[in-house]
Amino acid sequence: MDTKKLIFLRHGLAADREAWEGSDEERPLTAEGREKMLRIARGLKKVLPDPPDAILSSSLLRALETAEIVRAAFPTLSVEIDEGLRPGALLANFIKKIRRRKEKTILLVGHEPDFSEWILSLLGSRRGGFLRLKKGGCSLLEVDLASIPPRAELIFLLPPKVLRSMSS
């Protein structure tokens, strides 16, 4: 059985979309978003059963900033940009790439609604399920990549408030 642990982390609180004058790709985390993400990263380090072997991030600035903050909690790792985590990317394409990777535990930093849809799909929900990762929310799935379609077991789904509360 080919299993991997996938840690889905939604990017932190970013500049307001309507007020931001630049491109959406360049929308950064706010000061509050960076501060909260620091606490989330400390909480994440405590709650993960195994540290990640790799950190993959969407190329959008808010995701990259989030990934770098989390990377500081795991100093031996670097952040790798993966275009398969950009908004609108397809789970099937991403799974093909993940199957070829040697790492067993991979932290993914990306966006909604994609992450929630991917999580539901991996858990076997084909229609009608509802899930929403809040900014800074996280889910850990153990995914059987050998099955077609891939199947997953939910290890945890934590809102950012819980992760922040674990940081002290």
Structure in a nutshell:
This protein has 168 residues and is α/β, with parallel strands linked by helices. The chain is built from 5 helices and 6 strands; from the N terminus they run βαβαβαβαββα. It has a 6-stranded mixed sheet with strand order 3-2-4-1-5-6, sandwiched between helices.
Draw up the topology in text.
Elements: E1 3-10, H1 31-47, E2 54-57, H2 61-71, E3 79-81, H3 91-99, E4 105-110, H4 114-122, E5 138-144, E6 151-158, H5 160-165
Parallel strand pairs: 1-4, 2-3, 2-4
Antiparallel strand pairs: 1-5, 5-6
Helix pairs in contact: 1-2
Question: How would you sum up this structure, described in words?
Answer:
The protein is of the alpha/beta class and 168 residues long. The chain contains five helices and six strands, in the order βαβαβαβαββα. It has a single domain, classed as 3-Layer(aba) Sandwich (Rossmann fold). It is 31% helix and 21% strand. Strand 5 (138-144) and strand 6 form a beta hairpin. It starts with a strand and ends with a helix.
The CATH superfamily appears as: Phosphoglycerate mutase-like
- Determine and state the CATH class: Alpha Beta
Low-confidence runs of at least 5 consecutive residues: none
Strand order of the largest sheet: 3-2-4-1-5-6
- Domain count: the total is 1
Number of strands: 6
Percentage of residues in helical conformation? 25-40%
Radius of gyration from the alpha-carbon trace, in angstroms: 15 Å
What structural category do the secondary elements indicate? alpha/beta
Largest sheet report:
6 strands, mixed
The name of the CATH topology is Rossmann fold
